[in-house]
């Protein structure tokens, strides 16, 4: 199924990146009219879909004939690919012969729908085997991987990696995620946030105030915010512990737990319940979920009203939420894992620490020092504009395309 794309114009970004818009147009000039097909597994939910909704229209706006297709697959297929997702990051799970067969069969069927393209960008493990079933060897093939492949379950990797043989380039968020033995064919560039999306664009004070009112957050008191899915790796228990340590020093502090609840994720419901119990009866912990109508605009408003953003994840591929906060000039206190390390510069736009006591110490320091927050906030904005906004992402893709189509 081809995804219906919104309109975007690269000129809209001139207020944010100035003349870099011209540099992008120049880079795109030789690629005008090139047929580029992005393929992934879902049009909604998750970072990849979010990025493609913004990025593909921008590619079109600079002249590429870019399209985005979502593979068609039954539910059982996604049970198999969830196993790929986990085993490729190291989990010790068996994948049966029937599961491998189902995976190949779905990819083979989807491959039949592929026609005349010049360049393919295949995202993540779900559609990776498409390449094997498309007999267009003179075209260019990119596999864009959003997970860490440095320590996979070797049994699964040995078989899965055969699907990658026909790709010209593998793209990861970080070099440390490259799989062993594939370094020559791999490159790294980070994902991005879109400053013009509903999640990130400027909001007026009135909208922010009304959102806080509706969620019973007091705008006059300091606010720590954690934005994350209800997922064990995000370690929301530690976030609550950190908040409690801070509260001993600053009794008026509040904690917003902004967390989306997917109705089709039973694991998420259980986890939600555990976190709620852990939070107990403290009314200064505000659960802001989509069950209360917290969507992109509300997340935006809460992030903008935040004094310090907190991120306690113990494993993180990239962590778009970090860039979302930094872009809004909010300093971030986080654990030094995965993609967090390249976004938070310790002592510049936030602080990195592992232990809860240390994280709490940094949060207290920031809440007490408005001038420090202002300075770090400016730096954070700069970090994102220079490295993690969609136009930088677009440039990285354009360079890669030019390199391959040369
Ligand atoms: N998000 C959201 N509402 C929530 C929780 C998360 O919109 O209640 C968004 C968040 O703003 C970000 C994305 O979901 O854009 C999460 O991406 P990230 O890379 O931080 O983590 P992931 O969930 O992919 O592990």
UniProtKB/TrEMBL annotation:
<feature type="domain" description="Glycosyl transferase family 1">
    <location>
        <begin position="212"/>
        <end position="382"/>
    </location>
</feature>
<dbReference type="Pfam" id="PF21269">
    <property type="entry name" value="TreT_GT1"/>
</dbReference>
<dbReference type="InterPro" id="IPR049438">
    <property type="entry name" value="TreT_GT1"/>
</dbReference>
<dbReference type="InterPro" id="IPR052078">
    <property type="entry name" value="Trehalose_Metab_GTase"/>
</dbReference>
<protein>
    <submittedName>
        <fullName>Glycosyl transferase, group 1</fullName>
    </submittedName>
</protein>
<dbReference type="InterPro" id="IPR001296">
    <property type="entry name" value="Glyco_trans_1"/>
</dbReference>
<dbReference type="Pfam" id="PF00534">
    <property type="entry name" value="Glycos_transf_1"/>
</dbReference>
<keyword id="KW-0313">Glucose metabolism</keyword>
<keyword id="KW-0808">Transferase</keyword>
<comment type="similarity">
    <text>Belongs to the glycosyltransferase group 1 family. Glycosyltransferase 4 subfamily.</text>
</comment>
<keyword id="KW-0119">Carbohydrate metabolism</keyword>
<comment type="subunit">
    <text>Homodimer.</text>
</comment>
<dbReference type="GO" id="GO:0016757">
    <property type="term" value="F:glycosyltransferase activity"/>
</dbReference>
<feature type="domain" description="Trehalose synthase N-terminal">
    <location>
        <begin position="38"/>
        <end position="178"/>
    </location>
</feature>
<keyword id="KW-0328">Glycosyltransferase</keyword>
<dbReference type="GO" id="GO:0006006">
    <property type="term" value="P:glucose metabolic process"/>
</dbReference>
